[in-house]
Amino acid sequence: TNLIIELYKYQAESERKRIIERQQQGIALAKRQGKYHGRKPQYAQDDPRLQHAFKLYEAGMSDVDVARNTGIKRTTFIRYRKKCNIKR
């Protein structure tokens, strides 16, 4: 019975690999055709909440404090801060 289970495991694993391979091919094709854009950004560059967060950061607040005061997650804020080249 162990051999049968191993065969099923191998079959399922190889099928999963084939599915992923086909998915990657589809994504590559869609990117070439310009149809694959990914997720829309959560905040626009001129979003007032984001600008307020940048002002707090420039005033000396840490990333954690900015996240607590604005409701923007810390990692999201850091990503936008780097994207917009905001430095103290």
Overview of the molecule:
The protein has 88 residues and is mostly helical. The chain folds into two domains: 1-38; 48-83. Helices cover 69% and strands 0% of the residues. It is built from four helices and no strands. It has helices at 2-33, 48-58, 63-70, 74-83. The longest helix is centred in the N-terminal third of the chain and has 32 residues, at 2-33. The N and C termini lie far apart (65 Å).
Number of spatially distinct domains? 2
Per DSSP E runs of 2 or more residues, the count of β-strands stands at 0
- Assembly status: single chain
- Report the portion of residues in β strands: under 5%
Major sheet attributes: none
Would you list the SSEs in sequence order as H and E?
HHHH
Count of DSSP H/I helices: 4
Please state the CA-atom Rg, rounded to the nearest Å. Answer: 22 Å
Please state the structural category.
Answer: mainly alpha
Mean pLDDT: 92
From the N-terminal CA to the C-terminal CA, the straight-line distance is 65 Å
How would you describe the shape? elongated
Unreliable residue stretches: none
Helix content: 55-70%
